[in-house]
Amino acid sequence: MSETFTGEIHAMIKGRRIVLGITGGIAAYKAAELTRAFIKEGASVRVIMTKNASEFITPLTLQTLSGHLVYRDMFSPLKDFEMDHISLADFAEILVIAPATANVIGKIASGIADDLLTTTVMTTKAPLLICPAMNQSMYENPIVKENIMSLASRGYHFIDPGYGELACSTEGYGRLPDIEDIVDEVESMLTVKDLSGEKILVTAGPTREPFDPVRYISNYSSGKMGYALAVASRRRGARTIMVSGPTSLPVPKGIIFIPVKSALEMRDAVMDHLAESTVIIKAAAVADYRPSTRSDSKIKKEKGPLTISLERNPDIIDEIGRKKGKRVLVGFAVETENLIQRAREKMLAKKMDLIVANDVTQDGAGFGYDTNIIKILTPAGEVEELPLMSKYEVAHRILDRIRDIIRSR
Ligand code: PMT
User: Fold this and answer.
1) Average of pLDDT values for 361-381?
2) Which residue, of 9, 239, 358, 395, is most buried by count of CB atoms within 10 Å of its CB?
3) Could you list the active site residues?
4) Substitution site in 218, 280, 317 for ligand 1 pocket (most atoms within 8 Å of beta carbon)
5) 11-190 falls under which CATH superfamily?
6) pLDDT of 1 strictly over 80
7) What is residue 2's predicted lDDT score, i.e. its pLDDT?
């Protein structure tokens, strides 16, 4: 399943130059959908098809979708030929082969360059993403496995094929990975790894504070802001741990995920991982209070009003602020009045290095939206105001500030 959980979880593909190599397998028809997905993300796409690929899907389809001539032959250029294999290799900021047959994987692993695609692979300095798709027995063949391992050890990227029904009427591994997964991988590969070496702990989502087995006090946090931060942090190369309250979002790939329910559980999970973290981002909306008692059975409806007494939850960020040492600590603030002033007070009182203030009174900002409108405050008195943007873009802007703090130390 894709790690996409909001309307917009890609920011690096826009304006980038992608060369898509299509080889001769039944999944070649899915390359049309992939081309469309890249174009939708704002990429400029050039397609190279092998001779066998054109048996499965017509070049005209790819030409129409990419808006450019399709490259097929080294020696008989098309009428309006735009580039040769050298220029295609230079043009590529990333080269994706989807689907990649056992044959093309074997050729690349053996250094064979006997057509336009393999010659471009051999020439380009761009990173290469190979998306194998073939019959399961072929995929399990030790020669294919060895070729994949040998290429992976040289730094070539692979996405494992998906499981499901295969063209040969069997079921197994060998399907082209989901288009969303390929796009996610390209986004990751195009993201600069400027946070590698960092260990980033993100908290996300709401907490639930139960007062009987079927009811709890909580808030409207969907987790989208925290999850976007975790995805962006991982893509920028940081080892990422996310402590998350209950949400309906899929767990992002490649992170350490610690699910919790209450503020007390969140506090313990955060403290357990504080020592190993270099950066802590507290995007969770932690309940400040919890019911003082929890009934073991469902509280019965009575005639009069029901009073539930509340007690304070631990202030997790305050505790981190006191123990943080050289770690970078970033908090969030939700206020409906005097946003900047209150956010600044919280930042200074709890020794944060940044605070992200979201004005939840504005449309498109705060709880539940795919977008946010934030102001980033620093202890030195700076206030960076950002316009409405996707939570994923917001996450990158926050991580940019964190990177700058780390570099300035
Ligand atoms: O999840 P979404 O739907 O995407 O919405 C995003 C968000 C609005 C929840 C998020 O961007 C956000 O602002 N999260 C923090 C909300 C909040 O709890 O604000 P606060 O002003 O009450 O708390 C200030 C800071 O203290 C926060 O970093 C919070 O995580 C932390 N805190 C609060 C209480 C507590 N007991 N312990 C804490 O650590």
Assistant:
1) 96
2) 395
3) 168
4) 317
5) Flavin prenyltransferase-like (3.40.50.1950)
6) no
7) 43
Residue 24 half-sphere exposure, CB side, CA atoms within 13 Å?
Answer: 8
> Which CATH homologous superfamily contains domain 199-290+308-408?
CoaB-like (3.40.50.10300)
For the entire predicted model, the pTM comes to 0.93
Atom of ligand 1 nearest to the CA of 391: 4
Of 220, 221, 249, the residue with max ligand 1 atoms within 8 A of its CB, to mutate for a pocket test, comes to: 221
Nearest protein Cα to ligand 1, atom 10:
283
If residue 162 lies in a helix (H) or strand (E), which one and from where to where? strand 162-165
How far is it, in rounded angstroms, from Cα 123 to Cα 117?
A: 10
- Residue 151's pLDDT is 98
The closest-lying atom of ligand 1 relative to the alpha carbon of residue 350 is: 26
Ligand 1, atom 36: closest residue by C-alpha: 315
Tell whether ligand 1 has an atom less than 6 A from the beta carbon of residue 266: no
Report which ligand 1 atom has the smallest distance to the Cα of 343.
Answer: 21
- Residue ranges, CATH 3.40.50.10300, the chain: 199-290+308-408
Best probe residue, ligand 1, of 334, 347, 375, 377 (max atoms within 8 Å of C-beta): 334
ω into residue 142 within 30 of 0, thus cis?
no
Q: Which residues of 132-149 are buried (b: 16+ CB within 10 A; e: fewer)?
A: bbbbbebbeeeebeebbe
Tokens of 370: 């795919």
- Say if residue 333's pLDDT is above 60: yes
Residues 6 or more apart in contact with residue 340 via CB below 8 angstroms = 357, 375, 377, 383
Average pLDDT over residues 397-406: 98
Classify strands 17-22 and 94-100 as parallel, antiparallel or unpaired.
parallel
One-letter amino acid identity for 305? P
Q: Does any ligand 1 atom lie closer than 6 A to the CB of residue 224?
A: yes
**Which residues make up the CATH 3.40.50.1950 domain(s) of the chain?**
11-190
What are the pLDDT digits (tens) for 178-207? 999 999 999 999 999 999 999 999 999 999
* Phi, psi angles (nearest 5°) of residue 43: -85, 160
Q: How far is the CA of 226 from the centre of ligand 1 (A)?
A: 10
Q: Phi/psi zone of residue 292: left (φ > 0), alpha (ψ -120 to 50 degrees), beta? A: alpha
